[in-house]
Specification:
With 453 residues, this protein is of the alpha/beta class. It has four domains: 131 residues, Response regulator (Rossmann fold, 3-Layer(aba) Sandwich); 169 residues, Rossmann fold, CATH 3.40.50; 70 residues, Orthogonal Bundle (Helicase, Ruva Protein, domain 3), CATH 1.10.8.60; 39 residues. Helix content is 47%, strand content 14%. Helix 4 links the parallel strand 6 and strand 7. The longest helix has 32 residues. The protein is elongated and about 95 Å long. The two termini are 53 Å apart. The relative contact order is 0.07. It binds adenosine-5'-triphosphate. The site of adenosine-5'-triphosphate has 17 residues, from helix 8 and helix 16. GO terms for molecular function: ATP binding; DNA binding. It comes from Solirubrum puertoriconensis. Keywords: ATP-binding, DNA-binding, Nucleotide-binding, Phosphoprotein, Transcription, Transcription regulation. This is Regulator.
């Protein structure tokens, strides 16, 4: 890890002692040291420069150690402050440490050395914090929605607008869509576009955690709260403090936990399992489900009051089969990335393979498409991927997955709709491809059986 330069402010009215500390610290050329003989002089300087740490003399002419410490903490949150005092009083030391001082030293011959070691520690923490911030910024750049979310279709263009709107405020967002449509990707995009982007994005899939552990996973637990709780554990809500908490498959939360979640959201406070202290948190919430939450409410599986709390800004992700030629854009991007990562020569889809992808129903949506093209890149004998390389479920596309209870009329509408989506609503072209009259399609539009999106 590179050495971080450090700026240290010394607030000390004894000029000789101040020089002594400064002399020691300036032996390291990476340290910038500023000396102030009063708290006021230091406060004035804060407008032009901020320190990475401060040493504070306990008895200054313009305030007690406690007062100046508080004023400094308000102006410099998260900056370590070491208090140095001429009197060795344990109670004062304990009081200052409780108030949040980083350390407390009595003034003696050892102080400059002790200070030297403290600066080394602070410097290490600082380097870690800077590295962390750099990595977060990198991740933030990766999540430019227009780069991370591939698609050019009308619903995806509308999605970009909604992401920008959602990112401008802290409103709760509820994302719905079939499995693999990109719900988590959208949640990340909102987080990394928002003012919270430097803070954590914490994702929890409600169905992935055993029911009996979920409460403690979300809200944490105190030591001894239940058998096996050997230590205190911070829950996901607290981990996401300052950032975003993404709760996936929210419809699968059991009714008990729904009640607790509602309380927590209403009060913006939680209690760890086995604890009695209330802890306030500040996490932006994004929830997702592949189910129809409204229907879940009607059928009594989801609390109505929680539904209204969580609805916030609803974002509905269309299934891949309704995104027209986005299928090809996505396939191309996945192929390029996969070949580059695996040092394969670039591969391309043949015209026949493209037609198959365009007319497949993709019940697993984008996730399925990704898996199919990656496997095709592996299976293909040469650089051109043909239909035989595509392992599509339900045969070679066109009919896709048809529910058993669908009438013939509904099935025809479904097929016509898919062709309209893929061919940008070109009715004439679709009529020719399907060998049906274009008036049939117009009639279906009039009857609201299909639409040109
Ligand atoms: N528009 C898109 N552009 C690029 N990649 C996408 C897009 N949509 C989804 N993906 C990719 O598809 C995969 C599935 O996406 P994601 O996990 O976000 O879906 P999901 O809807 O949250 O799935 P689930 O319902 O199973 O939780 C991921 O690898 C994701 O990066």
């Amino acid at each position: 890890m590179p050495h971080a330069p450090v700026t240290i402010f010394i607030i000390e009215d004894n000029a000789l002692y101040s020089e002594l500390l400064a002399y020691k610290l300036t032996q390291n050329p990476d340290y910038t040291v500023r000396q102030f003989s009063s708290a006021q002089a230091c406060f004035q300087h804060l407008a032009t420069e901020k320190p990475d740490m401060v040493t504070l003399d306990y008895s200054l002419p313009d305030g007690t150690g406690e007062q100046v410490l508080r004023q400094l903490q308000e102006r410099l949150p998260n900056v370590p402050i070491i208090v140095i005092s001429a009197q060795e009083d344990v109670n004062t030391a304990v009081g200052l440490l409780k108030q949040g001082a980083y350390d407390y030293f009595a003034k003696d011959a050892e102080t400059p050395d002790r200070l030297w070691h403290s600066v080394l520690k602070v410097r290490e923490q600082l380097a870690l914090r800077r590295e962390n911030q750099r990595l977060r910024e990198q991740v933030g750049q990766k999540f430019d929605p227009k780069q991370a979310i591939i698609g050019n279709s009308q619903p995806i263009k509308e999605l970009f607008t909604l992401i920008e709107k959602a990112a401008r405020t802290g409103i709760t967002v509820s994302v719905s869509g079939e499995t693999g449509t990109g719900k988590e990707l959208v949640a990340k995009a909102i987080h990394y576009r928002s003012v919270r982007q430097q803070q954590p994005f914490v994702a929890v899939n409600v169905t992935a955690i055993p029911r009996e552990l979920l409460e403690s996973e979300l809200f944490g637990h105190e030591k001894g709260a239940f058998t096996g709780a050997v230590n205190r554990r911070i829950g996901r809500f607290e981990q996401a403090h300052g950032g975003t908490l993404f709760l996936d498959e929210i419809a699968d939360l059991d009714l008990n936990l729904q009640a607790k979640l509602l309380r927590v959201l209403q009060e913006r406070e939680l209690t760890r399992v086995g604890g009695s202290k209330t802890i306030s948190f500040d996490a932006r919430l994004i929830v997702a489900t592949h189910r129809n939450l409204e229907q879940e409410v009607k059928e009594g599986r989801f609390r109505q009051d929680l539904y209204y709390r969580l609805l916030g800004l609803p974002i509905v992700l269309p299934p891949l089969r309704e995104r027209g030629t986005d299928v090809l854009l996505l396939a191309d991007a996945f192929l390029r990335a996969f070949c580059a990562q695996n040092h394969l020569p670039p591969r391309q889809l043949s015209e026949a393979a493209k037609q198959q992808l365009l007319h497949h129903s993709f019940p697993g949506n984008v996730r399925e498409l990704k898996a199919v093209v990656e496997l095709a890149a592996v299976l293909a004998e040469d650089e051109l991927i043909g239909p035989a390389d595509l392992s599509l479920r339900n045969g070679s596309g066109g009919n896709g997955e048809i529910p058993a209870d669908e009438s013939l009329r509904q099935q025809i509408a479904r097929i016509v709709q898919r062709y309209l989506d893929v061919h940008n609503g070109n009715i004439l072209h679709v009529a020719q491809l399907l060998k049906i009259g274009k008036s049939t399609i117009y009639r279906m539009i009039q009857n609201n059986e299909v639409s040109v999106r």
